[in-house]
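Retry 2 of 3 after timeout on previous attempt. Resubmitting structure tokens to design endpoint.
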């Protein structure tokens, strides 16, 4: 028997919150147990192995510089006025040059490996600020006001770059891990050094829900 609506919201929202947090920091023992319990509940009631689905899914990485948020006009119809609905504000990012916006995709499992390597190198406290992860903030799409506010709080690229430079053994650890890991670390370091702000969007992880 499948889950009712209330249980479905509770379970899948819980998975989304914990898995998004795991992309930037290690989960506590209690959080790990809670996540495993939610996985088990999904399997028992929906017969869905969402843990495996997540491992095979991807997060989108967006890197941008020289970006300006411009208003995206939204039609405000008669019924909106009659019902006095709040006028929503939407925006699009405008960049000076095409090269000012980059995108990459990392598999969820690989993203966790990047985080684990960063922690091994001694940047576990800084990493959640260096590469924060949101759900649904796609730079190719319109952005809500709260998403723009979140983007405006991204750290300065120069700070992120200096943290990478100061961590002397980072590239050695990455090279010992794999060529893909070394490429990922170099990609982040290069773009931060060139003034790009970078963040992850985890929306694609949760299509199973």
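Retry 2 succeeded. Sequence:
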């Amino acid at each position: 028997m499948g889950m009712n609506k209330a249980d479905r919201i509770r379970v899948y929202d819980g998975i989304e919150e914990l898995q998004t947090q795991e992309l930037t920091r290690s989960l506590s023992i209690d959080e790990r147990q809670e996540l495993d319990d939610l996985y088990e509940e999904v399997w028992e009631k929906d017969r869905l192995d969402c843990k495996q689905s997540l491992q095979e899914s991807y997060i989108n990485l967006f890197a941008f510089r020289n970006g300006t948020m411009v208003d995206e006009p939204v039609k405000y119809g008669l019924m909106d006025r009659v019902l006095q609905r709040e006028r929503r504000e939407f925006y699009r990012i405008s960049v000076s040059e095409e090269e000012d916006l980059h995108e990459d995709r990392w598999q969820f499992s690989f993203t966790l490996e990047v985080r684990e390597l960063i922690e091994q190198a001694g940047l576990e406290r800084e990493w959640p600020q260096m590469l924060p992860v949101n759900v649904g903030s796609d730079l190719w799409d319109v952005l809500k006001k709260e998403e723009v506010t979140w983007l405006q709080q991204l750290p300065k690229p120069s700070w992120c770059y200096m943290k990478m430079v100061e961590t002397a053994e980072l590239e050695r650890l990455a090279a010992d891990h794999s060529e893909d890991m070394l490429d990922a670390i170099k990609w982040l370091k290069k773009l931060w050094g060139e003034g790009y702000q970078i963040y992850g969007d985890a929306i694609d992880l949760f299509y199973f829900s």
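Attempt log closed. The chain has one domain: 58-206.
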